[in-house]
Amino acid sequence: MSDRDPVHVAADIERAITSLNTIADPDAAERGRELAQLLMSLYGAGLARVLEILRAEGPAAATTIERLAADPLVSSLLTLHDMHPHPAAERIARALSALQQALPAGAALRLVSCVIPRAQIQVSLADHSPVAPDTLRQAIHRAVADAAPEITAIDIDGIPVRLLQILRPPSAAGVRSA
Amino acid sequence: MITPGSIPLAPLRQLLARTTRAAQEQCELCGGALVAQHRHLVDAAARRLVCACDACITLRQGANMDHEAGRLRPLPARYVHCPSMTISPAQWDTLDIPVDLAFVFVNSSAGRPVACYPGPAGAIESALSLAAWSSLAESNPWIGSLAPDVEALLVRRVTGEYRCFIVPIDRCYELAGRIRGAWSGIGGGDDVRLLIDRFFDEIAALSGEAS
């Protein structure tokens, strides 16, 4: 396991969870879930103890804790167990910054406010930007979900809100659905 | 380049949530114990649901609700199947709505309608202008009966048909939470589609819609 890319392991976990959820026998599925939950509980408690022991060392451990918080794998595990040392706003800001790198030049993503469980994000796109709004919205969603799962409502401003287009009177050409 | 926090472990959260949920169930008003299937009040200003026991809800349904400036409101009980929305498929397509599902409610403290699109991280919100809302209500007059803050219009497009219901708003957040927990891949995956199907079947039954 130690030499496998954690991103691939994460994908396998997702497949395994889906597979578990499709087991026809609900009792068997529940037993699988219970084992997974118990393991997560145990390893989560272990992570918490590691952090406690480090913190007990005082300021000397601050650098080490920061390195743990910045490591991709450790950071994700800490976030999963709600014990990441950085507040949600900082985690989101880092994730948006990383996502922004992957966007066309001139695109900017900014965290305007973060009051759990709500985050407000401002998007600025260059004129004629080739970014598809739905793709960008989904990417922002995923980035925030992974970085700060405590956020459950995201306001995104700056992506053209085409919702307003529905409110022109419908054309006569049979728009009513059954 | 992998950046911090970018290993996608979100699917594991649904397993975590199951172990921690049992420990959190307390009435937010009196601290009393709550059963898993408990009721809620709506905090309109904070735009969130407050977990509450039956006793606290009953207390707040008395005649003196006004003096709290309606800060905590009980949820209505009605589920209404609405005739299909007047909106063309082309218009719907321009909305980029994940999982072809949205719920819309009028937020009284913000003074405007809000549309929510459930997705992998919860519900994304989008403000609707008052003019936009009035125009929508003109074509779909039953929208005007929506109670602010506590009710929502729940709309789903399935193979070109639009299924619309007026429901208590907590059901929408419940659905958004469950979608978030079950999400996999780009479009949500089969689990999400199945859970939305079942959810709408339940809503339809509660609304007395003929199947």
Any key phrases for this structure?
heterodimer; A: 178 residues; mainly alpha; globular; B: 211 residues; alpha+beta; 6-stranded antiparallel beta sheet
The whole-angstrom Rg of chain B is: 18 Å
Low-confidence stretches of chain A: 162-178
Instruction: Describe the sheet with the most strands of chain B.
Output: 6 strands, antiparallel
Helix-residue proportion of chain A? 40-55%
* Percentage of β-strand residues of chain A: 5-15%
Number of H/I helices of chain B? 6
Which H/E pattern describes the elements of chain A?
HHHHHEEHE
Order of secondary-structure elements of chain B: HEEHEEHEEEHEEHH
Q: What's the rounded overall pLDDT mean of chain B?
A: 78
Distance between the termini of chain B: 52 Å
Largest interface: A-B, 65 and 62 residues
Largest sheet of chain A: 3 strands, mixed
Q: Kindly provide the radius of gyration of chain A, computed on alpha-carbon positions and rounded to a whole number of angstroms.
A: 21 Å
